[in-house]
Amino acid sequence: MFIKNLSYFNFRNLIDGNLEFDKKFNLFLGKNGQGKTSVLESIYFTITGQSFRTKNIKDIIKYEKLKLATYLEYEDKFSEKNIAIKTISNKKEYFYNKKKVTYDEYLGRLNVISFIPEDINLIIGSPMNRRNFFDYEISQGNTSYYIHLKNYNKILKIRNTFFKNKDFSEIFEIYNQKFFEEIVEIVTMRYEYIKKISILLNLNYRKLFDNKSELILTYKNSFGDITKLNKNQIMKKLLEYYKKIKDKEKKYGYSLIGPQKDDFLFLLNGKEAKSFSSQGEKKSIIFALKISEIDMLIKEKSETPIFLIDDISSYFDSIRKESIIKYFENREIQLFLSSTDDLGINSKKFKIFKGDVNG
Ligand SMILES: Nc1ncnc2c1ncn2[C@@H]1O[C@H](COP(=O)(O)OP(=O)(O)OP(=O)(O)O)[C@@H](O)[C@H]1O
Ligand SMILES: [Mg+2]
User: Are 178 and 274 in contact (CB under 8 A)?
Assistant: First the structure.
């Protein structure tokens, strides 16, 4: 699928406007601080309802203003559609084909993958960075994952209040049962996703950057290795683990088990990337990961996602940059790039100066 045009109102420093896009390559050019990242962010925000820079949606509303709105028209393989978001402070309203919808109904209509300098945190940052990232990515292709996760988080909160109140009555046991069921669903989906994407990741890393390396992504489940286990066996393993930590949970007063304790590791040539890989290698690992998500989304949705790359020149040397451009030239994917200098590629160019975008 591809985006035809985008309108924005009160978005960061951008002067309100409407942009018509090319089906394939779109390049945003400008000096530092002019609004390049903001344009990419406005696309990402319209598709996902989130920013790739901040958790606080108020940050993206233009200084001194209270409201923000974006509107986007796109085409999938069936027809032309549109989506829109209106925001007042932290409250968001979602629209699909001009009708108001819930976030659950909005999510995943259009898919986007972004690559921004801060993504390096996926390797060097805390496990929470990785969990948030994979949760969102799995949800994009699989709404059922998102629903399980939402249920789980609700139950987790309630379960923790039982601990706080030291209430271990029958109702606690009922919640516990539901809690375990949701854990099994979530870890199974996480495991399946990582297994698939790890294979693609290795292939893409080798193809794009270094054909002699081996890159593996592993899923570190909080209650042990679940490789090759079915759901019943996972439940058995979970309950065995629970027996061991049950008393500790009561003593500490919160849940010590569940997906909020999981982590994901990148191993380049058998060594953990976080501690051993160079800066360039880390960026390349994340890039290969994002490219692999394209293939995952195509498999799950049979549609191509939109791809955003912010500040491409600051990431890669010219050889890696060329290899990336070539990759996109050979694929039917709409790409949005930002850069401080012209990349000499065949694309629609937008010049940005003080928030004014001209294409
Ligand atoms: N909510 C906001 N309202 C108005 N302006 C903002 C807001 N948030 C950030 N800005 C400003 O918008 C400007 C553009 O920021 P942006 O990150 O898009 O620039 P950029 O072109 O990507 O720059 P760089 O090349 O340095 O990455 C900055 O000067 C920033 O301070
Ligand atoms: Mg920027």
Answer: no
Q: Domain check: are 211 and 228 in the same one?
A: yes
Do both 278 and 203 map to the same domain? yes
Give 305 Cα–ligand 2 centroid separation in angstroms.
Answer: 22
Q: What is the DSSP letter of 120?
A: G
pLDDT at 316: 79
Examine the domain organization and report whether 54 and 134 are in the same domain. Answer: no
Query: How far apart are the CA of 269 and the centre of ligand 2, in A?
Result: 32
* Distance, CA of 207 to CA of 213 (rounded, Å): 10
Atom of ligand 1 nearest to the CA of 35: 18
CATH number of 88's domain = 3.40.50.300
For the stretch 228-270, pLDDT in tens is 999 999 999 999 999 999 999 999 999 999 999 999 999 999 9
The domain tally of the chain equals 2
Task: Give the structural domain span for 139.
Answer: 129-300
pLDDT tens digits for range 207-219 = 999 889 999 999 9
354: left (phi over 0), alpha (psi -120 to 50) or beta: left
